[in-house]
C-alpha cells in the first residue's frame, strides 16, 4: 500500500502541536516543513523571523523557546511517543547544522538539492555521516521540477529515498502539480526499481493515480488532508486510490 504522509507547515509550536493532534493515531509518520525565509520565502517554526546567519552559525536568538528546549533535552517534539517525524529542511544551512536538526529526533531527514551547495561536497558529507546516525535516520533528497535529474542521479546510491517536489514554488501549501514531474518519477523508477520515491506538492485525489502509476511510493499532502472536514477518511481514500 502507498504511504500517505501528512505535511505540516507550522507557523508556531502550538500550530505544530494542534495539527499533529489531528492525525495522531491515524498515521505513523508526519512531515514537518522547516522554512528559514532564506532558501524559501516562507518562514516556519522553529524560526521566529527570517533566519539570519552570522559566519554560518545558527543564531539561537531567532529560535522558538520550545525548539531550544528540545535541543537541550528538556522536552520533546509534540506527541513524539505516538508519531514519527520526517523533517523537510527547506533551509540554507541544512548541511552545516545537520547535527542540530537531528536533535529533534526525526526518523527521516530531507535535504534539497538546490540548497546543499557543491554536489560532490554533499556526497562526501553523506558518506561521512556517522554509521550510528545512518542506521537510525533515513536520508532523502528533494528535487524541484526545474532541476535536471542528471544532478541527482550520482547521489542516489548515497540516499535512502528521493522526494520529487511537485512544483518549483516550495514552502507553501495549496500549490498545483507541475505535470513534468511525472516523467521525472518514471525515469527514476525505470533506473532504480527499488528506490522509494516520495512526491510533495500537488498531491490530490486527481493526481494520486497518475503519481502512483508513474512510480511514486510515498505521497506527502498538506492542504489535501488538513483542508477537509474528514481527515481520517481523506487519508484512507488517498491510500487506496
Structure, described:
- The chain has 241 residues and is an alpha/beta fold.
- It has one domain: Aldolase class I (TIM Barrel, Alpha-Beta Barrel), CATH 3.20.20.70.
- It contains ten helices and eight strands.
- Helix 2 (65-71) links the parallel strand 2 and strand 3.
- The N and C termini lie close together (10 Å).
Q: What characteristic shape results from the CA principal axes? A: globular
Question: If you compute it from the alpha carbons, what radius of gyration comes out, rounded to the nearest whole angstrom?
Answer: 17 Å
Low-confidence stretches: none
**Element order: H for helix, E for strand:** EHEHEHEHHEHEHEHEHH
CATH class: Alpha Beta
- CATH topology name, in short, is TIM Barrel
Amino acid at each position: 500500500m502507498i504511504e500517505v504522509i501528512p505535511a505540516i507547515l507550522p507557523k508556531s509550536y502550538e500550530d505544530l502541536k494542534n495539527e499533529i493532534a489531528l492525525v495522531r493515531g491515524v498515521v505513523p509518520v508526519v512531515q514537518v516543513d522547516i522554512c528559514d525565509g532564506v532558501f524559501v520565502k516562507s518562514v516556519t517554526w522553529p524560526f521566529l523571523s527570517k533566519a539570519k546567519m552570522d559566519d554560518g552559525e545558527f543564531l539561537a536568538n531567532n529560535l522558538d523557546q520550545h525548539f531550544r528546549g528540545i535541543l537541550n533535552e528538556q522536552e520533546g517534539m509534540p506527541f513524539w511517543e505516538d508519531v514519527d517525524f520526517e523533517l523537510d529542511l527547506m533551509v540554507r544551512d541544512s548541511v552545516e547544522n545537520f547535527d542540530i536538526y537531528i536533535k529533534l529526533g526525526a526518523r527521516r531527514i530531507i535535504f534539497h538539492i538546490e540548497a546543499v551547495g557543491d554536489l560532490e561536497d554533499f556526497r562526501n558529507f553523506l558518506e561521512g555521516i556517522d554509521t550510528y546516525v545512518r542506521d537510525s535516520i533515513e536520508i532523502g533528497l528533494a528535487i524541484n521540477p526545474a532541476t535536471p535529474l542528471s544532478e541527482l542521479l550520482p547521489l542516489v546510491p548515497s540516499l535512502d529515498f528521493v522526494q520529487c517536489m511537485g512544483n518549483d514554488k516550495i514552502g507553501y501549501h495549496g500549490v498545483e502539480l507541475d505535470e513534468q514531474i511525472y516523467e521525472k518519477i518514471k525515469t527514476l523508477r525505470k533506473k532504480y526499481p527499488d528506490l522509494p520515491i516520495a512526491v510533495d506538492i500537488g498531491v490530490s485525489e486527481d493526481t494520486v493515480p497518475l503519481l502512483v502509476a508513474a512510480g511514486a511510493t510515498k505521497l506527502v499532502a498538506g492542504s489535501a488532508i488538513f483542508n477537509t472536514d474528514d481527515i481520517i477518511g481523506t487519508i484512507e481514500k488517498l491510500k487506496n486510490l
